[in-house]
Amino acid sequence: MKNSKMITIDKKTHIDDKKLQFALKRLMDIILSLIGIIILLPVYLIIIIAIKLESKGATVFKQVRVGKDGENFTIYKFRTMIVQAESKRTLNIDPSDLENFVFQSKSDSRITKVGSFLRKSSLDEIPQFFNVLFGQMSLVGPRPEIPEVVKYYPKSYHQRLLVLPGITGLAQISGRGEIELGKTVAYDLNYIKDFSVILDIKILFLTVLSVFKKEGAY
Fold first, then answer.
1. Which of 31, 65, 154, 205 is the 20 to 30 Å CA partner of 166?
2. Which residue, among 126, 112, 167, 125, has the nearest Cα to 143 in the 3D structure?
């Protein structure tokens, strides 16, 4: 594992000394997630109907992810794959080459037609506004990883668990689902190191641009 380029974050310096910034971040999360849920309610209903018309099964996909301080939580997404897709998932994880692991695939045959649209438009992620409201996630932060990958994390990678995971983040505006884990972690650690509410606002703005351009989404 090549970790020589990974930065080291001092929790006291970069986390504890920014308590006011994190308090403002949480306030922004609550306000914006509530606004998002209310405004997007008609969109939620349309998506639910579209998913139901194409295939039977639950419209909301639930999955265990690893959050802040290594605590597991249930993430919510609109279902974009066939029913029981998880049982057909094959993760090719090489612990000795974890930095080159890519979770998503452009040619995943399990993705439905409606699901493909939802992924490209990132509308599959909007149920995570509830995760944000519940305090399990933030609007901005490292994307939450699945436990099967986290168990292979080297010590330097665990630093990305110092903050709440996010719906979007520095890595997502830099490549979204198509960059390797090593690069993703490097982006995440730089985000944590340089965190500020202003940086969050900038990332949210750039996320909107990335979504409209459909960069790295599939």
1. 154
2. 167
SS3 string, 2-18, reads CCCCCCCCCHHHHCHHH
Instruction: Give 55's contacts (C-beta < 8 A, 6+ positions apart).
Output: 82, 83, 112
pLDDT for 104-150, tens place per residue? 666 677 899 999 999 989 999 999 999 999 999 999 999 999 999 99
Rounded Cα distance between 198 and 216, Å, is: 24
Report yes or no: 59 and 78 within 8 Å, Cβ to Cβ: yes
What pLDDT, in 10s, does the model give residues 158-193? 999 999 999 999 998 886 556 889 999 999 999 999
**CA dist 182 to 95, 189, 205, Å?**
12, 11, 25
Domain limits of the chain?
Answer: 12-213
Q: Which helix (H) or strand (E) holds 38?
A: helix 19-39
Closest by CA to 63, choosing from 53, 48, 49, 73, is 73
Instruction: Give per-residue burial for 112-130: e unless 16+ CB within 10 Å, then b.
Output: bebbbebbeebbbbbbbbb
